[in-house]
Amino acid sequence: MTAGFQRGLDAEMTADADHSQTPPADLKKLRLRYAGTCVACGAALPQGAQALYHAASKTVRCVACPGEPATTEAAPIDGGTAGASAQREHDRRAAKREAATRQRFGNRLGGIVLTLTDEPQSTRAWAKGARGEKELADALAGLPDVVTLHDRSVPGTRGNIDHLVIAPAGLFVVDAKHYEGRLRIRDRGGLFRTDNRLYVGGRDCSKLAENMGWQVKAVETLLASVEVAMPVTPVLCFIDVDWPLLFAPSSFRGVRLEDPKSLRKLITATPALDAAAIEKLARILAAGFPAK
Fold first, then answer.
1. Which residues contact 198 (CB under 8 A, 6 or more apart)?
2. Between the CA of residue 127 and those of 203, 229, 241, 272, what are the distances in Å?
3. Residue (of 230, 239, 243, 238) closest to 272 by Cα position
């Protein structure tokens, strides 16, 4: 990343007022059926107000957007709660299991059955994932000039983005994985064909890298809606995996492979964004991807 991205963002920050008079063709002027938030300046847009709607990112903007926070003292950025949706899904599944067990065996015997039996692995995985997201959030907390948005919903989808990290080194989409086992890349292609796969223990985790694609695309689409062009770095951050002592892989299919410690170094190395640009980006992303 270079200073060019900083200059481009600075230009966008000063040009919003002009753009609001002649919005891009992909912005549609309409009257809001529901209250919203301007993705560019963070202003609250009440139900019935006229606004500009960007269909690809499903975001709204002021008709005449100042491009800066609407009040002298901008509202705090909602950073979200790491692992919140994963924990809720675990709790929902656990409650459903408890209700079914007590209905089948009765309240007293059902309680004994629940005490003596383990939750299904598919249920435990949600709690484990939530713990991993929380651990990563704790590792990033307190870093200077770093804003982390946790557990963000993506409008128009049922998915979420674990962490959006806006830091001196740029913008990172981070998926936290609480896995155990040795991390390695194996060639499964044979003698005449290369087919590299990402493994953690005996588990083929290659699809994790592919899953980062739609998340990056969603972020790029949002930024394009406010005329910001900058690289988005996808990261798989593994919690508690066993890294090789020698030749540990640093990336797989264009996705960075990190642990919490190395991620801290990555996001603070080679500064490309100043504090004002970081806050500007964080407000855009927080408005476009609300806490889940």
1. 183, 185, 204, 205, 206, 208, 209, 249, 252, 253, 257
2. 19, 36, 17, 36
3. 230
Joined together, the tokens standing for residue 174 give: 């981070």
User: Could you give the angle at which helices 84-105 and 121-140 cross, rounded to 10 degrees?
Assistant: 150
Q: What is the pTM of this model?
A: 0.86
| Burial category of 156 from C-beta neighbours within 10 Å (exposed 0-12, middle 13-18, buried 19 and up) | exposed
Q: For 139-179, what is each residue's pLDDT tens digit?
A: 999 999 999 999 999 998 999 999 999 999 999 999 999 99
Q: What are the E-state strand segments in the chain?
A: 27-31, 36-37, 44-45, 50-54, 59-61, 147-153, 160-167, 170-178, 183-187, 196-200, 203-204, 232-239, 251-252, 255-258
Indicate the pLDDT class of residue 68, thresholds 50, 70 and 90: low
* DSSP-based helix, strand, coil % in the chain, nearest 5: 40, 25, 35
Query: Rg for the chain (alpha carbons), in Å?
Result: 22
pLDDT at 107 exceeding the cut of 80: yes
**Looking at residue 194, what DSSP letter applies?**
-
- Two structure tokens written together for 105: 């065996």
Instruction: Provide the residue type at 224 as one letter.
Output: A
Which of 150, 85, 89 lies closest to 120, judged by CA? Answer: 89
